[in-house]
Amino acid sequence: MPGSSYDNDNIFAKILRGEIPSHRLYEDDKCLAILDIFPVNLGHLLVIPKAKAQLVSELAPDLAAHLMAVGARLSKALRQAAPRCEGVNFWISDGAAAGKEVPHVHLHVIPRFAGDGFGWKCGPGNRVPQEAPVLASVAQAIQTVLGKA
């Protein structure tokens, strides 16, 4: 997290400082977009905020929106320029338990095509229908926290 536990030596921090080369696609005062060197498919890119943040919730709302706007703009380019792009996934892994490997917020913009073999895999305990009272309880807990925010 900013200040106390943000890792200033993570790979994206080093790329942002120009210490590690990258294939830069877009840059403004708020973010940098680069090609992923381990792409799911060719053209897979990352939109990285310049702010020091590990979690999306640490970003100012306008910066989080800006990352998505830049990603949307770049997805239009991918549809024309990527070797194969029939669709696009926008993906943020927010925390280690969500599969995040680099402790710096980043939006994946992934060109997709039929039969590319990539996808969202669910375990046997996932995507199980829930009873209305269980959903109501979870909704109430979230609403209570939002009321305190």
User: How are strands sequenced across the largest beta sheet?
Assistant: 1-2-3-5-4
- The CATH superfamily label reads HIT-like
Shape verdict: globular
The description of the largest β-sheet is: 5 strands, antiparallel
CATH topology: HIT family, subunit A
Radius of gyration: 18 Å
Strand content: 15-25%
What order do the SSEs take from the amino end to the carboxyl end, as H and E?
HEEEHEEH
Q: Which architecture per CATH?
A: 2-Layer Sandwich
How many E strands? 5
Quickly count the domains: 1
Helix content: 25-40%
N→C terminal distance: 19 Å
Q: DSSP helix count?
A: 3
- What top-tier CATH class fits best? Alpha Beta
Q: Quick check: average pLDDT?
A: 94
Helix-and-strand structural type: alpha+beta
Topology (SSEs and partners):
Elements: H1 11-16, E1 24-27, E2 31-35, E3 45-49, H2 61-81, E4 87-91, E5 107-112, H3 132-148
State the gist of this model:
With 149 residues, this protein is α+β, with helices and mostly antiparallel strands. It has three helices and five strands, in the order αβββαββα. β1 and β2 form a beta hairpin.
Characterization of the model:
- The protein has 149 residues and is of the alpha+beta class.
- The protein has 3 helices and 5 strands, in the order αβββαββα.
- The protein has a 5-stranded antiparallel β-sheet with strand order 1-2-3-5-4, covered by helices on one side.
- Strand 1 and strand 2 form a beta hairpin.
- It is globular.
